[in-house]
Structures are given as C-alpha cells and as structure tokens.
Q: What sequence folds into this?
C-alpha cells in the first residue's frame, strides 16, 4: 500500500521503541509527558465548560423557572388585579401571567428567627408562570386554604432546616412596620400564625428565602396595601427588559413599576458568564502549555536524528519532506492527546454530577451550599460544539508547536551532521 514518505517516517519515529539508548528513552519519556499533559488539559476543559453550561442551564430553567421573568407592581389599593393579569398575559412577547402579593417578613419558631419573602399566590394561575409545583406534593396548594382558621404555608427547605420545623407544625410570621389598612396608619408589626403544609427542595438559593401562602393571607399580612402585582413569563427571557418596558407603557393607570430578572438575578447571570470565560481561558492556557511541550519533544528528536536526517537528505529527500516528517510526528502526538482527552472529558462531563454527589455522600460533606452558590449540587450539560471546539483548538496548537523543530530539522546540513556522527 502506498504511504507518503514524510508521514511514514514521522509515524515510525513517533512509535519507535528504542529503550536500549538513553537519549531515545528520554525522548520517549518527554513525549509521553507531553501527550499526558494534552490529554488532561483537553479533558479538564471539556468538563469545566460542561459544568459552566450546567450552571447557566440551572439559572434559566430552575431558578428562573420558579421565579418570574418579570413582575409589575402598583400601590393603588383599588386596582383589579385579575383584569391586569389578563391584560398582561395578552401582551406581545408574554406567554403567561399570574397575580401575586409579596411581603417581606420574619419567620419565628421558638427562639429561631429568619427572614423570608412571603408570596401570596393564586394556585390556579401561579402554575402558569412558575415551576414551583414540580417541587411540591400533590394537593399542597389546596392545603393552603383547607382550614380558614389555620391557614397554611409552604416553606423552602433551607428555611425549614434553620427553624428546625417540619410539615404539620405551627409557624409565626411577623411583618415589621406593616400597613394597618385603615386610613394609612401603621402598626408596630403584623403577626400571623400558619401551619406548615409542605417543604419544597429546589436545590437553589430560593430554598433559603421563599415561602408561599394564599393570596388573601398575604394581603392580610401586608395590611391590604403594597406588594400586589402580576408576575409574567416571557417567550424570550433575553428580551425580557425591552418587553417589560413596552408593557409598562401599555398599562392604562399610572403608578405601575417593577423589574425583570436582569434586575433580580442579572448579577448572577453575569457572574456565571464571567466565571465561564475566565476558567475557560485558564484551562485553554493549560492546553497551550501542554501542546507546546511537543516543541521540547521534537527538538530532542531532531537532535537525536541528525544522522538519519543527513542520510535522508543525501538520498534525495527535499527540505519540504524533512519538514513534513517531523510535523507528522508532532501531529500524531497531538491527535492522540486531543482525541483521548476529548473522550475522557466527554465521559467526565456525563458522570461528574453523580461523582460529586457520591463523594458528598461518602464523606458526609457538601461541597456546594445553596445559601452560597446558585444551586446545592454540581450541574453539568455537555454541548458537542464545545467538545469539537476544544479538540480542534488543542490539535491546532499541537500543529503550530511542531513548526519550529520541523524547520530546524529541515535546515540540517548533511555533511556537518555526518561528520559529527562519524
């Protein structure tokens, strides 16, 4: 079978085993280190990019799945929020809307106290804008109003753990400086008792801040004024700001205000993107260093093969053929390194979430906590485009790294090299 001479010789050099010579053994050792470094760099970069993709997905699908893309408020107590909800839902770019009443308060159980955001919801409409129902037991929304004398409340797991409270137990909610609702006067605090009907665990920071009650109960806590609004879900969350601003201009009554997710979680989104870029840059530099280790390998091969190069030149090999010979050797090292690294990175991306969870279970520790990080586990989402990009970039760097030693080999003078050998 016909084989191009440069590729044939280069592959023989790359695969040759000459353990009886010290120089050849050293070259083989350095070549192995270069390949291992390239394998680890490519695998690590694929895994890191998959983890960053996972954090981005969790923000979009889990955190912003529970929280709305935007919320509009108005302090006017005479607004018909059902009508406003229908108008918002019909606006261009908005897929669903639900009325909500938000109150900032304190939860107290015994001596334990923690702040929380109480959301009063309509169970029939909240499921259209939030995935919170996916984390609740069937019938939890109905349990909020089963007993008017003992209203129910749904807590995040972080709040329940801090208060050391479980389902079926009593909880006190305090709203400091709440409006009394009679003439605008204000009381020192509004206090209400609730029965915990469910505890949700979303694995996000919302577990430590969010509590859900019925709309009427939230209105009572707020004293009948302030905190009422409409939550909405957008067709395109990245265009939420422009859609929201357009909506404010369409609403008939003045005094509407609010925010979209870029105001509430925009910093988190930017932090994830910045971290992804910085970590990717650092790991890319690791790949570059590993790829350019090929330079030292090929330089030693060129020194070791001076005699062989001279013989090839005297037999008629051209400068281009000598150059391609050593490019072929470096390309083989780079190709094996990036392909094996890509496969290991692919496998690592698929198992990293379960592997970290297994380590947490084995050692009884938690690496990520949702009160510090966006989620309490390590997410991963593999994108084939990222794998192709990393593998392609690693191989390209390997090829670039071969140029200098290959050029040095092509400039070897046969007479001088043979005189040194003999």
A:
């Amino acid at each position: 079978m016909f084989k191009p001479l440069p590729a044939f010789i280069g592959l023989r050099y790359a695969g040759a085993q000459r353990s009886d010579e010290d120089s050849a053994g050293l070259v083989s050792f350095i070549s192995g280190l270069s390949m291992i470094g390239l394998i680890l760099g490519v695998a690590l970069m694929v895994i890191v990019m998959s983890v960053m993709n996972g954090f981005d997905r969790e923000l979009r699908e889990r955190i912003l799945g529970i929280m709305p893309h935007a919320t509009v408020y108005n302090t006017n107590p005479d607004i018909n929020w059902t009508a406003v909800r229908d108008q918002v839902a019909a606006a261009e770019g908005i897929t669903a809307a639900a009325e909500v009443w938000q109150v900032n308060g304190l939860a107290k159980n015994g001596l334990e106290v923690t702040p929380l955001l109480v959301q009063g919801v309509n169970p029939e409409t909240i499921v259209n804008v939030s995935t919170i129902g996916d984390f609740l037991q069937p019938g939890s929304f109905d349990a909020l109003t089963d007993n008017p004398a003992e209203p129910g409340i749904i807590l995040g797991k972080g709040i329940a753990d801090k208060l050391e409270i479980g389902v079926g137990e009593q909880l006190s909610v305090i709203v400091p400086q709440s409006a009394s609702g009679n003439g605008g006067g204000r009381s020192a605090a509004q206090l209400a008792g609730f029965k915990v009907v469910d505890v949700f665990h979303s694995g996000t920071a919302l577990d430590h801040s969010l509590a859900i009650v019925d709309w009427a109960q939230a209105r009572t806590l707020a004293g009948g004024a302030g905190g009422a609004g409409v939550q909405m879900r957008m067709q395109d969350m990245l265009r939420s700001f422009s859609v929201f601003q357009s909506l404010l201009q369409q609403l008939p009554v003045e005094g509407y205000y609010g925010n979209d997710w870029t105001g509430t979680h925009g910093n988190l989104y930017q932090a994830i993107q910045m971290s992804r870029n910085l970590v990717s840059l650092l790991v890319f530099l690791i790949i570059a260093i590993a790829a350019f280790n090929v330079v030292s390998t090929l330089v030693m091969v060129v020194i070791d093969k001076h005699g062989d190069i001279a013989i090839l030149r005297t037999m008629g090999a051209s400068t281009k053929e000598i150059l391609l010979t050593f490019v072929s050797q470096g390309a083989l090292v780079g190709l094996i390194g990036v392909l094996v690294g890509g496969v290991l990175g692919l496998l690592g991306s698929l198992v990293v979430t379960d592997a970290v969870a297994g380590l947490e279970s084995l050692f009884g520790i938690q690496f990520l906590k949702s009160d510090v990080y966006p989620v309490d586990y390590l997410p991963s989402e593999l994108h084939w485009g990222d794998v192709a990009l990393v593998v392609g970039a690693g191989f390209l760097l390997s090829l670039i790294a071969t140029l200098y030693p290959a050029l040095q080999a092509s400039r070897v003078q046969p007479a001088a090299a043979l005189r040194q050998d003999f």
